[in-house]
Please model this.
Amino acid sequence: MAEFKNPNQASAGSGGTQDNKSLILMMIVMVGVFFGLQYYRQKTNPPLANPATQNGGQSAGQAAAQRTVETPSTVAAPVGQVQAALGTQAMPAIQAVAETTTVLENELYKIVFSNRGGQVVSWILKKQKDADGKPLNLVHEQAAKAFGYPLSLFTYDSATTAAVNSAMYVASATGSISTPGSVSFHYAANGLDVTKTFSFDETYLIHADVLVTRNGVPVRALISWPGGFGDQDNAMAYNSAQFDTMRDTKEEHLAPKKVTNGDTLNGPFEWVGVSDMYFAAVFLPDSPATATVSTLSNQIDVAKTIKKTGFSSNSDKPVLVPVLGTALGDTSGHTTARIYVGPKLVNVLRGIHPTGSKESLEPLLDFGFFGPIGKYLFLALQSIHSYVTLNWSGSWGWAIVFLTVAINLLILPLRVKTMQSGLKMQRIQPQMDAIKEKYKKYKVTDPKRNDMNAEIMQLQKDNGVNMFGGCIPTLIQMPLLFAFFGMLPKVVELRHASWFWLPDLTSADPYHILPIIMIVSQFLVQFYTPSPGVDPQQQKMMAFMMPAFSGYMTWNYASGLALYWSVGNLIGIAQQAVMNRTSLGREMREIAAKRARRKAGNPPTIQGRR
Model:
């Protein structure tokens, strides 16, 4: 192990002052970027404005109307009261006498409609699992009971909303319907006439055709997804929800704090919807130019209903979490649209295009500030999984390992360049120390200090030294690291993907094994990597600060990130150990040892005194 002794701990002197400041500055920037990512979404997009101030198509009475979609269990008003609210024009009544269900099913999902409200009570994705390993139901039961079920209707009159979502519709078919197929729900009474038709095929898309009239006049009724998703069982899942839109080929992603309940905005809209980390419900209007959208934002108390990581264990106090929804209609009153409800799989989203547009739903994958880098990292990861590990082990964990190895091999030449730059810096360090000693008597604010900096820069230029040469690998790796940080927890392909003792690469290591390995390996990286000119005390401080920083980042974060970081550290240690044995590494250690002897004094004299 003596062969690998850190060459930096013997080098010091006044020549390290400027580089120490650069190292501290780099650390501050890293910490700033890490915490800055947490607030990126809130700073980049403004909240949707109230339509009452944007367009005159909505009256003041409509803007002030009740926005909350009510649940069938809470809106079952007496028939006489509903009739009085809707008018008394005579017309043939069309309504069922008993509740029935209709099932639309293909290889991807099983959707259960109830004729009460003509809405969805269960939307099961067959290829996705919940926390208990069962097929995932995307209907959030608690939120649906409070705010409405998927594909219920939203209007700007509370009585009308209550009536259309509690009425007993006549279904065109009951039981199961084969692919392709469709089902219609029709209700008519007291001047109100509602028709809802849903068609489906073998994809995740369904088509909706909704028309509501009162006394023959169209009512502005919007079809809605009001209550979040059934996979939201922890604090991160709720807080990562977002309201997604694309207007004029420009997408926006609004965090829950930026969404106001009941705000309405008229088109054009290529698509609009809500999503969480892994799933989305998106409306693609058949007529984007006349589309109208309402934002739905509420809160529910999960203290007694969901006991998962990130929530308070004290059930006596409410734990309020945001629940986002949206509703889509048409200014003509007749709404026709495709609806995508499913996982945010990049290959699927890429193939779904809005009406009359070449764009797709791919922008739903929002990886944050370093999103473009994260996107290509994931595509590379997906390619490795498809062509390498899928035929071998099928593990996404091994795909991460292979991608990490590939990245480190690509930047290996830069590591060698960094070491060469460090050697050049060590060779001229005595001359740099002499220049700094010459100007030591001048204060920092003295103009003579500028002459000192000019001499040092000229010395470095004459000897081919790049003062930033040692930072190049770090400058490349840090964006990759933060891109992984933003990408891994949002990739549905890695959801519930296991690797050895890790049950889910998008969740934290349950035993914290990888974070501990990462902390130890990060310390060794700091110890063995040459940093010419850095003061020994500064080097020791960084040797503990960097592992602590990386440990904090990965302790309760996606284990896939800890896997990527740990493997990268282990590869870096191995590469540095080999380079330290080369002639380049030996020369660096010899120069460092000479500087150490000069600083400590003449060793023979010291030994003679002993």
